Every structure is written in structure tokens, then in C-alpha cells.
Amino acid sequence: MTKQYLAEWFDGRVRTMQVTGSYFATNHIDEIAGFPEQSGLKSLAAELVELGSLAHRHGGGIVPVLIIPLGVSDALDANPPELTQVSFGTEPPSFYLLEPRYFSSWSDREEYRSPYRVHPGGRILIEYVCGRSMQMREQGWEYDRMLFLRTTSDGISRFDYRSDNPPTAGGRSPM
């Protein structure tokens, strides 16, 4: 994807957030003009890093996030997939732009979260998430499974380690 298309999408979504007062904006990748039809985890991570650079230059505290749906599970699934084995679910991945207040808001989700101990290029944090909202639980619905990726430039990282001395992958293969 060209940087121009990503920058246009970023600018448009940030303007919408400012006008509406929303603390997030999102689009499936297939709804973003100029985005390639087939994108793997590595190329999506590279686009997220570019969004992180755009957000950093913007200076408004915007946190870019990439959500990769992995399908559903009947039970709370505490078994993160190997990153090299990730296959996308039936729903396309989505980019989100979040204001930091999103991370401090109350959540009604029951969920399992597990960070991966890989830090691709020292610029992205990856978590496996399996969960559902209270409404989904009350209706007896399944749990959503996903990968949650965000850049480390947002200043609100949940864990931090230096890319020049990365920890072992804990049995997980790096991207």
C-alpha cells in the first residue's frame, strides 16, 4: 500500500473523530482505498508501523491498533496460536485509531489476554485476546478470538523491554 493512501485514510478518520467527538475510528482493511487485497501478518504489521509514524507526527495522542479476527470459540480459549500459524477468520482485519481515554474506560468484557513475547522490530506489541461482552454472555453467544496489535510509540505500553536485548519467544515463533 502506498503511504499516500494510508495518510489520506488516517487524516480523514482523525477529522471525523474531531468533528463527532468520538474517541475511536475504524475500518476493515478492505474498506480502505488503495489497500492490497491480500495482506499477511507481516505486511499488516508494517502498515501499522506506518500508522504509528503518522500518529506520532500528528501529536494528538492517537493510538493506532490492528485487530485480526481469528474466529469464535464456544469456550474461553486460553491457547494463543503460534504467530507463524495464524490464519485469518472469516472477517477481515481492521485498523482502529483510538484516543488514550479508550484504554482507561470501563469494559464489560470477560476475556483472556496473553501478550506475545516477540517485539517485531521493537515497534509493535501483540496480544492474543479471547472474550465476549456481558450482552453476548447473557445471550449465550460464543467468544471472539483475535490478535490485538499496537505500536509502542503511544507511551502506554503494558510491558516494555529493549529490542536490543529481546526476551526469548517462550516457545512462540517470531513473525
Describe, in plain words, how this protein is organized in 3D.
This protein is of the alpha+beta class and 175 residues long. 23% of the residues lie in helices and 27% in strands. It has 3 helices and 6 strands; from the N terminus they run αβαββββαβ. The chain has a 6-stranded antiparallel beta sheet with strand order 1-3-2-6-5-4. α1 crosses α2. It is globular and about 40 Å long. 26% of the residues are buried.
Report the principal-axis shape.
globular
Helix count, per DSSP?
Answer: 3
The number of E-state strands comes to 6
From the structure provided, what is the oligomeric state, counting identical versus distinct chains?
A: single chain
* SS class: alpha+beta
Strand order of the largest sheet: 1-3-2-6-5-4
Order of helices and strands: HEHEEEEHE
For the largest beta-sheet, the strand count, sense and barrel status come to: 6 strands, antiparallel
The parts where pLDDT drops under 50 for at least 5 residues are 155-175
Query: In angstroms, what is the radius of gyration?
Result: 16 Å
Q: For the terminal residues, how far apart are their CA atoms?
A: 20 Å
Average pLDDT, to the nearest integer? 81
**Beta content:** 25-35%
Helix content: 10-25%
